[in-house]
Amino acid sequence: MRSGEFAIINIGTLQTPKGTSALRAEEQGQNLKLYNACIVVKDGKIAKITSGGTLPDIVKCGQCKVIDANGALVTPGLIDCHTHLVFGGWRQQEIPMKIKGATYLDILKAGGGILDTVRKTREATEDELFIKSMAFLNEMMTMGVTTCEIKSGYGLNMKDEIKQLKVIKRLNEESPVDTVATFMGAHAIPDEYKGRADEYIDMLSNEVLPEVKAQGLAEFCDVFCEDSVFDVSQSRKILEKGRELGLRSKIHADEIEEIGGASLAGEMKAVSAEHLIATGENGMKKMSEAGVIAALLPQTSLYLGKPYAKAREMINMGIPVAVATDFNPGSCPSLNLQMSISLALMKYKMLPEEILTAVTLNAACAVGRENAAGTIEIGKAADILIWNAPDFETVCYRFGSNLVHTVIKNGEIVKYNS
Ligand code: IZC
Ligand code: ZN
């Protein structure tokens, strides 16, 4: 028996996108499908793949452990490329206001919304935030997530932004799930800077961002480019400063109003523009030309009662589409990425193959993990799911259930349903 080596046998369908770059247009819908397949995992990586009932020699000789997939579907681990997973408290107290007609931005302008979560996050200790978010991450893992992007942005000052980012770092160290940190100090204008958004952006640029960089706490810089939050020129400023320091750009663009966020993403060649509910043709064109990934968040449209992003148009225009949750206490209190998968089918009218690419390879590209994860190919990390389903169509349409049977992360079984 060779240690550090095992095989997944009896895979009914092995379905995966291929490569290390974001797939667009028809390519987004091209998945490799192998039947009656087997994967050999060695030292946490994918070492061999066979199909058509052919067994690798080490399996035939009984030289390694085997996991029997019993004819089920196997895919890469899911990647949630947009979350705000580290936060204090919740916002269920907003429900009556919302039922009476207050909008997301009404609540924020009245000092609630994100600012309410900021107060609760500032009050929480690093350990409290860590314990709470570790439980979320575990829950996501049992639902198939093996890599998760997490944004700061509920501290909005030096001390509490760093506290949040340190929690994200600890999660990466202590959870089997890989986490990717995004600095989003420009998430809202804190009370201390009310009416002084430019000064707040300067403070973030000159003080907080350099410290985040010095401590190596984030890979990406994001900004809430939105009506009554940060305008295009303020957004450009913080992203440029981040870029100067080596942080790649992401933009919350056109979630509620179209104020030019998608065009800015194109202009800055951002890695991704996220939400894009209100994006028009011009913004899409700029994104397509610059190869910006659209990170779409259908559960936010569901929860806010907003239209759904125009995913089909984006795919037709050659924009690579990723799909994520947006897990946060205000506009998406769900961390279930399988629900986003189902909404992508039902509301975006994406095809199952396009959706699989959106939650694996394209999401990996959106978080800079395209060389390590996002596909089942020799040399990539063994981040693998065995589903309680024969095919990915079933995963897409059986919304509401957790259909993940087994989760393998870096070659370790981290969830197994007997
Ligand atoms: O806490 O409301 N949209 N930021 C931008 C969010 C949603 C998270 C929140
Ligand atoms: Zn968000």
Could you describe the 3D structure shown?
- With 418 residues, this protein is α/β, with parallel strands linked by helices.
- The protein has 17 helices and 16 strands.
- The protein has helices at 25-28, 57-60, 95-99, 104-109, 114-123, 126-142, 158-174, 197-214, 232-244, 261-267, 281-290, 298-304, 311-316, 337-346, 352-359, 361-366, 392-397, and strands at 5-16, 32-42, 45-50, 65-68, 73-76, 78-80, 145-151, 178-186, 220-225, 248-253, 272-275, 293-296, 321-323, 384-387, 404-409, 412-416.
- Strands 1, 2, 3, 4, 5, 14, 15 and 16 form an eight-stranded mixed beta sheet that branches. An eight-stranded parallel beta sheet has the order 6-7-8-9-10-11-12-13.
- The mean pLDDT is 97.
- Zinc ion is lined by residues 82, 84, 252, 326.
